[in-house]
Amino acid sequence: QVQLVESGGGLVQAGGSLRLSCAASGRTFSTHAVGWFHQAPGKEREFVAVIKWSTDITNYADSVKGRFTISRDIAKNTVYLQMNSLKPEDTAVYYCAARRVISRWPPRSESEYDYWGQGTQVTVSS
């Protein structure tokens, strides 16, 4: 019902920046929140940030507060994750996910999302 495609990943040096994009298509009008998660090899998928589509309310994991910013462009059906002051420990595959109905806030668990993209690799060198 909703398709998500991430882009913008790449290789950067520590302290650098990247902007990830999550382009949504399909029944985007039914989407109430879009989140970002990341997963390093051999580790669990972790919550990064989430935004309410209609009200622009945001929430962040403690590890990225002050460094990452989530935003959305309604006209383009796109959510962004601006990542500044990147650290080697930020290296992971980054996924965007959409939630159709918000039953609680903030949704920080993987199981609370209905649609997922394929991910984009972010590598931060030291």
How do the strands and helices of this protein lay out in sequence?
Elements: E1 2-7, E2 10-13, E3 18-26, E4 33-39, E5 46-52, E6 58-60, E7 68-73, E8 78-83, E9 92-99, E10 115-116, E11 120-125
Parallel strand pairs: 2-11
Antiparallel strand pairs: 1-3, 3-8, 4-5, 4-9, 5-6, 7-8, 9-10, 9-11
Short characterization:
It contains no helices and 11 strands. The protein is an all-beta fold and 126 residues long.
Textual characterization of the structure:
The radius of gyration is 14 Å and the shape is globular. Helix content is 0%, strand content 51%. 33% of the residues are buried. The protein is an all-beta fold and 126 residues long. It has strands at 2-7, 10-13, 18-26, 33-39, 46-52, 58-60, 68-73, 78-83, 92-99, 115-116, 120-125. The strands form two sheets. Strands 2, 4, 5, 6, 9, 10 and 11 form a seven-stranded mixed β-sheet that branches. Strands 1-3-8-7 form a four-stranded antiparallel β-sheet, with no helix packed on it. The termini are far apart. The chain has no helices and eleven strands.
